[in-house]
Each structure stands twice: as C-alpha cells, then as structure tokens.
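README, section 4: Worked example with a bound small molecule

Sections 1 through 3 covered apo chains. Here we extend the same pipeline to holo records, where the ligand is supplied as SMILES alongside the sequence. The molecule in this example is zinc ion. Nothing else about the input changes; the structure line simply encodes the ligand pose together with the chain.
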Amino acid sequence: MSLPLFTNRVAVLATMHQKQQVMAPILEELGLKVIVPANFNTDIFGTFTREVKRPGTQIEAARIKAQKVLEITGETIAVASEGSFAPHPSLPYISSNREIVIFIDKENDLEIIGEEFSIDTNHSYQIINSVDEAYEFASKVGFPEHGLIVMFDEPKNSSEVFKGITTLDQLTEAVNFVLSHSTTGKAHIETDMRAMYNPTRMKNIEKATRNLISKINSCCQRCSAPGFEITQRIQGLPCELCYAPTLLIKSVIYQCKKCEYKEEKLYPDGAEFADPGQCMYCNP
Ligand SMILES: [Zn+2]
Ligand SMILES: [Zn+2]
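The generated complex, written as structure tokens:
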C-alpha cells in the first residue's frame, strides 16, 4: 500500500553492506524513492568483530545511524538496520538473531521500528589448531555462500583480522598465516555476519523490513498517523475446561504514538479459550 504521506519522497538507507538488495524493493512499495549514500561508513558505529564497540542498545545504534545519514544528506526520511546475535533467551545452546529496522521521518515526527527474531542463523565461532579444523568449521556454517573471518586468538595481534573470506584459497592462506605467526599455535575462526556475506542474515533483515512495512501501513483510526502498533500484551486467556485464566495472551493493546489513542483487540491468536494443557489447574 502506498501512503500519500510518503509518495515520491526520498528515503536514505544507511547501509554499506548491500542491505538495499532486500530492503529497497520493500520500502519502494510505500511509494518511497530509496537512495544509498556513497561512502557511508557504518563500521564507525560498531562492528560484529569487536574492533569498534557499539554505542548503547541495538535500537539506539540504529537510530544514531539513521540520524547521521539525515545530517549528511539533508533529507527527511532515513532507514537503518541493526542486528544482534546472542544465545536464545530460553535455549542457551541455540544461537539467535534479532534484526531491527528503524524508520525515521523528521517531517512528520515519526519513528517506527520493525523487528525479526529468529533462530535461523549460522552465527558461530571456534578456536582451531589446524587448517583441517578450519575446513570442518567452514562446512558446518554454510561456507562459501556464507563468508568467514579468521583472526588471532591473543590480544597482541588483535588488529590483524581477515574478513570476508569466501574461497578455499583465502581460507587456507589466512589460517596458515595466523597459525604460523601466533605464539599459541591457535587461530580464532568465526562466521562473517555482515549482511552481504551472510544470506541467512539477509533473509532476517528482509523479514524485519516486512514487519516495519506492516507497522507503517497500520494507521491510527483517530489521527491516521502510521505506526499504530501493539504496545502491550495482556495474559489471561481462559482455560477451555475450567475457565481459569492461563498465561496465554487474551488481548493486545494498540496505541498511537502521535495522539495516544488506544484500542484493545481480544484474542489476537484467533482462539477464545486456551488448551487445558496450558492450564495450571487442569494440567498441574
Ligand atoms: Zn493517532
Ligand atoms: Zn483449566
């Protein structure tokens, strides 16, 4: 859906990692003209390889990037994305990837955030002692479609990092170099999580952008501002057998950020009752 608010306006995409491949076509559905500034170095805002520490939270980091491109270009709409990787909150042995995409419209004073949380990620690292161990790691993480990073496992040589490795020759050379120059005889190998080296992450960025568009297309009934979104989830869906409230979501509250208008929607998951298996009386 093309919103008149955005038709033919320029949106600056704050990326240097080819994220426009997946983000631009989706944003253009809103009627926006997407541009990517040349020479915009997002690495000064933090990198995954810990060379530069990221400022603040994930959302703050994305916001800073978006504000920076608005400053540089003098435009009024910016979009930036930021990813993070961590063990899954309830399944610590599984990696998870949270992607957020922030949309800022200075002219209309809007800030809308799309999000994707996924366990579909190859995010991983290992300490290796040989080239064979590097190959083994590579075969498990989707190399060479997914790039790799090789570096020293000691602070002394921490500035020497081989990034964006996508061929067996590059991998062999980097691992041999590190192994032969390291005092420990070990090397650190990890997945390159930059979007253009990681098609799995690129997909999650695409999903986060889709989520952003659906939030933008959800408009307030009172003032018609985009970004009418869920701000609260209320538990208490009644058990089908005994009607006692369960921990499942009974309703959600949508709220407009502009005019504060609120709306409650019952049974967001489509069911009016919870399975007795979720009930602490029927299934203690
Ligand atoms: Zn409103
Ligand atoms: Zn029950």
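What to look for in the output: The domain at 10-120+197-217 is CATH 3.90.950.10 (Maf protein). The longest helix spans residues 199-216.

Section 5 describes how to batch many such records.
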